[in-house]
């Protein structure tokens, strides 16, 4: 009896796929999808394929009427999550969360193959598979593989139409990317030749959508599907501040297992790993940022206080997880602040202005007071009071 072992790394878990006779074991991250293969290239007349889980029939397909019948467990645990291939009878389980034995039974008037058992282990996944990025970022969507096997086939698809945008097939000598719908990905997709991960550079708003990777091999009877929902937002990644002000370099979203690095050049300014509760701020070699850096533990944003014109202009943010890597470049321009002399001049100007307002107010008040007295006590012959000013007397005469 022959057996083959394929070992790959996914998240922090080791996935062991063991094929031995009529049994196959596979580990899948919770929320991913898996396709269990019947081994049939085409269903023949009078053939019937049944899929069972934990003693219950969950799906059947036959060639008699060409129809597909799905049986849902009474508790509804597979509702809307099962899909049958109408040519081969392969069973795809989406958003998987059920560990256990999945059995395949094929009945046929010809020599039917023996019953096949797939032991599926669903491992915990505590991260969200959707990510928000800013326009212009570089994003890497991870396969979770440490090395591509010789018989592995990896296909990346995009959008609701599942357009093929990248493919690796070592056996067929295929290793290429495609421009995608409307040639939107031209020269911006890159494959990692060791892991098969997909890198999207200078990402645009039109790149938002669903990405799916299919990982299979000729030596195993299953295919793993991983999906990523990417949302690209139009946001400003440059900011101008005056010397001495505080600036916050924000993050749009942070997941539980993200590793966050704030850097300029190759120098790490700050590090956050929420899962390990690690929050670290560096003094940097020249101590130029000593006591001027702060981290927001909730959002991961970097706060720089007392900014200086000698501070770096380019900062880099790297967000890494087992699902993705985001690289972002942020420009901070620190302009000159006000000098002590300029500040003193502004203060003096304000004081002089205030004094002038007071003087004008006093003069106005005295004049109004004089006019009121003249109106209330006019002379019998209409002559002016000796204490009145000429212009005020003129005003009184015009008013009479």
From TrEMBL:
The chain crosses the membrane at residues 342-365. Residues 372-400 are annotated as: Disordered. InterPro entries: Ig-like_dom, Ig-like_dom_sf, Ig-like_fold, Ig_sub, Ig_V-set. SMART domains: IG. SUPFAM superfamilies: Immunoglobulin. It comes from the Eukaryota. This is Ig-like domain-containing protein. It comes from Cyprinus carpio carpio. The lineage of its organism: Eukaryota, Metazoa, Chordata, Craniata, Vertebrata.
């Amino acid at each position: 009896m022959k057996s083959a072992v394929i070992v790959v790394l996914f998240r922090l878990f080791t996935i062991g796929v063991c094929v031995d006779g009529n049994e196959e074991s596979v580990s899948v991250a919770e929320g991913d999808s898996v396709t269990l293969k019947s081994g049939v290239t085409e269903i023949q007349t009078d053939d019937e394929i049944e899929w069972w889980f934990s003693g219950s029939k969950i799906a059947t397909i036959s060639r008699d009427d060409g129809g597909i019948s799905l049986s849902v467990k009474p508790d509804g645990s597979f509702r809307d999550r099962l899909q049958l291939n109408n040519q081969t009878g392969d069973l795809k389980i989406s958003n998987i969360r059920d560990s256990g034995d999945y059995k395949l039974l094929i009945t046929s008037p010809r020599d039917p193959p023996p019953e096949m058992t797939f032991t599926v282990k669903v491992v915990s996944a505590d991260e969200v598979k959707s990510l928000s990025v800013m326009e212009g970022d570089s994003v890497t969507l991870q396969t979770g593989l440490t090395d591509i096997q010789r018989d592995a086939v990896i296909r990346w698809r995009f959008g609701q139409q599942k357009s093929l945008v990248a493919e690796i097939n070592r056996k067929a000598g295929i290793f290429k990317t495609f421009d995608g719908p409307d040639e939107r990905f031209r020269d911006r997709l890159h494959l990692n030749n060791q892991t098969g991960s997909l890198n999207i550079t200078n990402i645009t708003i039109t790149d938002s959508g669903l990405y799916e990777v299919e990982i299979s091999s000729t030596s195993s009877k299953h295919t793993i599907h991983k999906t990523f929902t990417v949302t690209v937002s139009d946001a400003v990644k440059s900011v101008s501040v005056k010397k001495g002000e505080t600036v916050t370099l924000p993050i749009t979203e942070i997941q539980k297992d993200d590793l966050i690095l704030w850097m300029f050049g190759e120098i790490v300014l700050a590090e956050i790993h929420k899962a390990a509760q690690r929050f670290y701020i560096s003094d940097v070699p020249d101590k130029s940022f000593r006591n001027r850096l702060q981290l927001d533990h909730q959002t991961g944003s970097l706060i720089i206080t007392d900014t200086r014109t000698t501070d770096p202009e380019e900062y880099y943010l790297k967000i890494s997880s087992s699902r993705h890597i985001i690289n972002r470049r942020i420009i901070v321009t620190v302009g000159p602040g006000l000098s002590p002399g300029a500040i003193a001049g502004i203060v003096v100007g304000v004081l002089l202005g205030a004094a002038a307002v007071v003087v004008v107010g006093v003069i106005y008040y005295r004049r109004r007071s004089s006019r009121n007295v003249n109106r209330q006590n006019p002379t019998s012959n209409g002559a002016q009071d000796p204490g009145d000013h000429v212009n005020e007397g003129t005003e009184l005469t015009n008013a009479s």
